[in-house]
Amino acid sequence: MTSTLITDIGELTTNVERGADRFGTLTDAAVLVQDGRIAWVGPAAEAQGIAENRSGVRESARRTESQTPDQFSSDAGAIEVIDADHRAMIPGFVDSHTHLVFGGDRADEFEARMTGTPYAAGGIRRTVAATRAASDDELSARLTGFVAELHAQGTTTFEIKTGYGLTVHDESRLARLAAEVTPEVTFLGAHVVPAEYSDRRDAYVELVIGEMLDAVAPHARWVDVFCERGAFTPAESERILAAGTARGLLPRVHGNQLGPGEGVRIAVAAGAASVDHCTYLDDADVAALAGSDTVATLLPGVEFSTRQPYPDARRLLDAGVTLAIASDCNPGSSFTSSMPLMIALAVREMGMTPAEAVWAATAGGARALRREDVGVIAPGARADLVLLDAPTRVHLAYRPGVPLIGEVFKDGVRLR
Ligand code: NIG
Ligand code: FE
Q: Could you tell me if 228 and 244 lie in one domain?
């Protein structure tokens, strides 16, 4: 058995509700990791005894000459001890919304936006052309680079959507490549109607819900649709979600990003795990979300990168809506994979407290992916952990742009 004891944690955010503290904050804490899972969480003062007990270390166990000072011997194996030096620890970030398999970039569009050209969904077609032209090896190499980028920034669980292929062949290869790096793959054949179908959109919808869905479903867990003016209508969106659900995929929706619309209503009616963007909501949308199990996933990187108004997180939280925040990393509307940046924006621009933003970036993302094994630091959960180079989680918003991600563990394995 491999055991790691991380001790002297100054502030530990567990996300396990304790009385009035829904963030489950402990001070002077320790975490014991065994075989990739959390085995115990508690006061640092009790940690050593618990660790020795749980690892089968006998009372007489003591360091031997061949061991480093931060290991203890036992018949059952060694315990590695990591001193957090009073820094803060949080669960690894859960980025529940990305579009990381694509070719090319659209830096020119971003530059034009910064001098006044508005964002439009049609830009997706440029990335579709670049993605179709890229080989599997090129897309995979890029994906590997993005995964390293995510890990370096503390993200240990991430979702990836297709949606830049839009042919049966390309959507299925994007899903297959994404599935090599994450179990959370989303079929987004309904991202935009591709140019070659622009005067035959019904035929494209038929393709998506027929042959394309059949080809992608074996690689995917989720089905998504961009329900928006310029993308898919409410009626088309409902058909696509129903077809995906019938094929065993779980629904999620891109909605209410560029203007008011039916996205939220459709997502709630479909029992979607999440409706993402939620920038333009009316009172009925907020009430529907509050009365549902559908998470509202806010993507502040989009508003930052498109100069659109930010969604009002405070209004949603006060109404009782469960929120996640995610990067939406994609070459058009938000080319950043930084969850710390999302936290800083959520606090500065959307009315969230630092603790609420950290919760939304961890436990909220896990809810948006219907995952109970990540986003919390509790016995049995995956040992996906981030030690911050800071004394508290508040620093993630308080020191924007500063690299505060220290050690990162995924399934108990240290990634950095
Ligand atoms: O989530 N809204 C739809 N899709 C992406 C944008 C994709 C693009 O512009 O390439 C989004 O913002
Ligand atoms: Fe998106």
A: yes
Q: Kindly give, in sequence order, each residue whose CB lies less than 8 Å from that of residue 330, ignoring residues fewer than 6 positions away.
A: 98, 99, 100, 102, 127
Q: Which of 99, 237, 329 to mutate to test the pocket of ligand 1 (most atoms within 8 A of CB)?
A: 99
pTM of the predicted model, to two decimals? 0.95
Number of domains into which the chain is organized: 2
Please count the residues of the chain. Answer: 416
Q: Are 393 and 91 in contact (CB under 8 A)?
A: no
Claim to verify: residue 31 and residue 173 sit in the same structural domain: no
Q: For residue 37, what are the domain limits?
A: 3-91+376-414
In angstroms, what is the C-alpha Rg of the chain?
A: 22
- Verify whether ligand 1 is closer than 6 Å to residue 257 (CB atom): yes
Burial profile 7-35: b = 16 or more Cβ within 10 angstroms, e = fewer: bbbbbbbbbbeeeeeebbbbeebbbbbbe
Ligand 2 centroid distance, CA of 365 (Å): 14
**Residues around ligand 2, an ion, CB closer than 5 A:** 328
pLDDT tens digit at each of 416 positions of the chain:
789 999 999 999 999 999 999 999 999 999 999 999 999 999 999 998 988 888 876 444 444 555 555 666 555 568 999 999 999 999 999 999 999 999 999 999 999 999 999 998 889 999 999 999 999 999 999 999 999 999 999 999 999 999 999 999 999 999 999 999 999 999 999 999 999 999 999 999 999 999 999 999 999 999 999 999 999 999 999 999 999 999 999 999 999 999 999 999 999 999 999 999 999 999 999 999 999 999 999 999 999 999 999 999 999 999 999 999 999 999 999 999 999 999 999 999 999 999 999 999 999 999 999 999 999 999 999 999 999 999 999 999 999 999 999 999 999 999 99
Residues 31 and 176 in one domain: no
Same domain as 258, residue 144? yes
Q: Are residues 358 and 216 in the same domain?
A: yes
27 and 60 assigned to the same domain: yes
State the distance from the centre of ligand 1 to the C-alpha of 304, rounded, in angstroms.
13
Judge if the beta carbon of residue 285 lies within 6 A of ligand 1: no
CATH number for the domain spanning 289: value is 3.20.20.140
**Residues 212, 138 within the same domain:** yes
Probe target for ligand 1 pocket from 254, 305, 342, with the most ligand atoms within 8 Å of CB: 254
Index of the ligand 1 atom closest to the CA of residue 277: 1
Residues 83 and 120 in one domain: no
DSSP structural state of residue 103? -
